[in-house]
Amino acid sequence: MGVTERRAVQRRLAELGDRLDERIVAALQREVPAYAAISAAQLAETRAITAWAVRRLIEMWVEETALTAADRQRFRGIGVARATDGRPLFAVLRAYRVAAVQISDLVIDLAGGELAIDDVAVLHRTLLTSVDELSESLFAGYTSAIEQLGNDRARMLAGLADDLLTGRQTSAAVLADRAAQLGITIPAALTLAVFAPQAPGVALSEGDVADLASSIGGQPTDVLHTRRGGQGVLLAAAVPDLAPQLTFRRWRACVIRDLSPAAVPAGFGLAAAAVGHAPDEAYAASPVLDRGDAMLVALLRGRPTVDPAELAGVALGPVAEAENAHLLEGLQAYLRFGSSTEAAAALGLHPQTMRHRLRRITALSGRDVHRSWDRLMLDAARTALALRTSRP
Asked: How many domains does the chain have?
């Protein structure tokens, strides 16, 4: 075994110049799919790293030394860079194993039988040990970067949700650019959900909000989520029925659908006030309030401002249409007399006919006159409708 023979091989490798780097890079692109279609800039970076890594590994073989702290720190930085550009960790680690095989083959080819068995043994031991150590550094850098990127991404997504809720930077162009940067799509119509614990004075944590978001979204980016004033907020293209999730957690919510991005701030103000101030009676049928419930709470509180005529349309739905005038007539009579029998008598109907009309009202509006909150909602809505139609 001799240092002289190893140095001779080292000189021959140096004489190959760029051809050495190209051979190894070609092997990486051939054997590691993630490297097959990298950009020109990434390819140039790969060549530069290859040239440095080969030189260091051969130096360690010739001198029988090991990776230095500076070497390990550089490989850690390479791991960070690979996480940032999105190359899979397993592909990065495999690339170094492929390179090690190429280096071994090149050394044996260039030695021409001049190396002793001990020289070859030291070469393989150097390569194996170095690949193991540099893999640890790559792994450490990669995983730390992924964690940081994940935290940064989570903050950016929460920031986007906050901006939508407050109306900052909600022009179509700005939203499209921010969404593209985050790899998501912001739909033209959003569903907003605001939720909080039933128990007063209990605030939700970021983990609570993220947990509910992940339980209803197919992908982590399907649902934007954030916290505002102790309440959790979700924004998504669609939100499924939250009642089972909320009942299990002992939370309450208000869900408002079909909001344009520009309408989200007003919708949020309405929903947040509803969750914060709706009486227990509002939740008699479900832990989830809707737009009509939120509008009634606002009307009773005096803020945020709502249009009574809009409340009438939302609460009554198809009941307010001309073709259902008989249902509206039945509703007015029932709310006046408080009894289907008396209402039927006042209208000259059979009580069973009146009860049928009340069932149709429930089916069309989603409100049941036998529940106090729904009855208040329907009364406010039909009164607002009557006042609107009576204007000169």
From this structure: 3
* Phi-psi region at 68: left, alpha or beta (left = phi > 0; alpha = psi -120 to 50): beta
Q: Are residues 14 and 139 in the same domain?
A: yes
Report the DSSP pairing between strands 223-228 and 231-236.
antiparallel
Nearest alpha carbon to residue 97 among 41, 59, 47, 138: 138
Kindly state whether residues 16 and 122 are assigned to the same domain.
Answer: yes
Residue at 257: amino acid letter: R
SS3 of the chain: helix, strand, coil, percent, to 5? 70, 10, 20
Pick from 149, 173, 194: which residue ends a domain?
149
Residues 211 and 107 reside in one and the same domain: no
Q: What are the structure tokens assigned to 251, written together?
A: 């939370």
**Domain range for residue 16?**
3-149
Residue 169 within a domain? no
Burial class, 288, CB count within 10 angstroms (exposed 0-12 / middle 13-18 / buried 19+) = buried
Q: Is 177 part of any domain?
A: no
Tokens of 249: 């957690």
Return the sign of the alpha-carbon dihedral for residues 341, 347, 353, 359. Answer: negative
Q: Are residues 7 and 93 in the same domain?
A: yes
Count of CB atoms situated within 10 Å of the CB of 180: 11
Angle at 82 between CA 77 and CA 87, to 5 degrees: 165
**What is the rounded distance in angstroms from the CA atom of residue 144 to the CA atom of residue 163?**
28
Please check whether residue 106 lies inside any domain of the structure: yes
Q: pTM (2 decimals)?
A: 0.64
Structure-token match 């492929």, residue found: 98
Per-residue pLDDT of the chain (392 residues; tens, 9 = 90+): 578 889 999 999 999 988 999 999 999 999 999 898 888 888 999 999 999 999 999 999 999 999 999 999 999 999 988 887 778 899 999 999 999 999 999 999 888 888 889 999 999 999 999 999 999 999 999 988 888 877 777 888 888 899 999 987 667 777 887 887 787 888 889 999 999 999 888 889 888 998 898 888 655 456 899 999 889 999 999 899 999 999 999 999 999 999 999 999 999 999 999 999 999 999 999 999 999 999 999 999 998 999 988 999 999 999 988 899 999 899 999 989 888 999 999 999 999 999 999 999 999 999 999 999 999 999 999 998 888 766 55
